[in-house]
TrEMBL record:
Biological processes, Gene Ontology terms: ribosome biogenesis
Record-linked Gene3D superfamilies: GTP-binding protein OBG, C-terminal domain, GTP1/OBG domain, P-loop containing nucleotide triphosphate hydrolases
Keywords attached to this entry: Cytoplasm, GTP-binding, Hydrolase, Magnesium, Metal-binding, Nucleotide-binding
Protein's name in the database: GTPase Obg
Organism: Amedibacterium intestinale
Protein location: Cytoplasm
Domain Obg: 1-158
Length: 429
């Protein structure tokens, strides 16, 4: 089964907790704090595996978790770092944040590894909190939670040349003749339901990868049929070979077919019409082919047309030479539909995002206030609240962040309820 798109939930490992411990050693009267730090949480990592051709494994494993870091130990010893969860994916895999659409990784190189979700930061042991005022701190940090979110994983085939056209125009036959690929060939529509790749050897020694893509239909750019699934695999191609059936099988008009396919390509979001296109007039051995070709050239006088009969491998060498020549002068096209992105940039798409405030105050009415914000919530989750010292330390941290004054300015009164991460506190000076 060919699977080229799947939604996955990823969860990096939680950082290990720091501990409270004191040095207990003979002849050392005041050993002091010696609680060690926890270990960092493991990352979720995607790695290219050239042996894989589909995302089928992810379809049946839609929750990926990395290992949590180990707890700290006495004598200032660190906990073990959590093991990374390494997921092997095919070459050409694109990973997006499902919520924001942000591209996290674009895996286009052999052996490439990318961190998808980062493990949580380790919690510090009480050794770090000693001071002249508090020589025996009873406080340590909890490990921070790892990143956790939903992603969309897409496979976009890595091919230099992509074949497009209506179903049953001869794309699979062309690939089978010019390469060693063995796509399914039959006399019914949509024989090809998944991309097929083949290595093409040009007579002069040059070579390139060709992709036979499932046939398009009118409305494909809007998702009709399996349009989006098919068009997605053309995005990485630098050259397009447009196969047109001049034999008028099934009563189709090649002039109209050419127009419709190009409209679908131009309507798709990745600017496919910017790629150089080779028009292949196929099935020239059939009776109406010459008349159709004449009409085609009259309708599109500026279009270079190569006459072929793929089933008997006739007229294919000029097509291969032309494709190889175009590949030498055609650069890679960016996958990102954003004019601000450099066309030569590779990898992750970075966009400017304004700095988020450390916290936000939400007035829920009836004396209830909610505090939200990534920095605040991270600090809260890393704070132990087991004893009075823990609470006092957390209160000082909140005051240092300016939360107390911000609540006062917003209208919060003594005795009001303040909620942080679903935990209620009473507000007071």
């Amino acid at each position: 089964m060919f699977v080229d798109r799947v939604k996955v939930h990823v969860k990096a490992g939680k950082g290990g907790d720091g501990i409270v411990a004191f040095r207990r050693e003979k002849y050392v009267a005041f050993g002091g704090p010696s609680g060690g730090d926890g270990g960092d949480g493991g990352n979720v990592v995607f790695m290219v595996d050239e042996g894989k051709t589909t995302l089928l494994d992810l379809r049946y494993n839609q929750k990926i978790c990395a290992e949590a870091g180990g707890k700290g130990k006495p004598k200032k010893m660190h906990g073990a770092r959590g093991a990374d969860c390494v997921v092997k994916v095919p070459l050409g895999t694109l990973v997006k944040d499902l919520k924001t659409g942000r591209i996290i990784a674009d895996l286009t190189r052999k052996g490439q590894k990318e961190i998808i979700a980062r493990g949580g930061k380790k919690g510090r042991g009480n050794f770090h909190f000693r001071s002249s005022k508090n020589t025996a701190p009873q406080y340590s940090e909890l490990g921070a939670p790892g990143e956790e979110f939903d992603i969309q994983v897409e496979l976009k085939v890595l091919a230099d040349v992509g074949l497009v056209g209506f179903p049953s125009v001869g794309k699979s036959t062309l690939l089978s003749v010019v390469s060693k690929a063995k796509p399914e060939i039959a006399e019914y529509h949509f024989t090809t339901i998944a991309p097929n790749l083949g290595m093409v050897q040009v007579p002069d020694g040059r070579s390139f990868v060709m992709a036979d893509l499932p046939g398009l239909i009118e409305g494909a750019s809007e998702g009709k049929g399996l349009g989006h699934q098919f068009l997605r695999h053309i995005e990485r191609c630098r050259v397009i070979i447009h196969v047109v059936d001049m034999g008028s099988n099934d009563g189709r008009d090649p002039v109209e077919d050419y127009r419709i396919i190009n409209e679908e390509l131009s309507s798709y979001e990745y600017r496919l019409m910017e790629r150089p296109q080779i028009v292949l007039a196929n099935k020239m051995d059939l009776e109406p082919a010459q008349e159709n070709l004449k009409r085609f050239k009259e309708a599109y006088p500026d279009v270079e047309v190569f006459e072929t009969t793929t089933i008997i491998a006739e007229g294919l060498d000029p097509v291969l030479y032309r494709a190889a020549d175009l590949l030498e002068t055609t650069p890679q096209f960016p996958l990102f539909n954003d004019e601000e992105v450099d066309a030569n940039a590779e990898g992750v798409l970075y966009k400017f995002e304004p700095e988020k405030p450390a916290f936000e105050i939400q007035n829920m009415g009836n004396g209830e206030w909610h505090l939200v914000g990534e920095e605040l919530e991270r600090s809260f989750k890393m704070s132990k609240l087991d004893n009075e010292e823990d609470f006092m330390r957390f209160a000082r941290k909140m005051r240092k962040m300016g939360i107390d004054q911000a609540l006062r300015d917003a209208g919060c009164q003594d005795g009001d309820t303040v909620v942080i991460c679903n935990i209620e506190f009473e507000f007071m000076e």
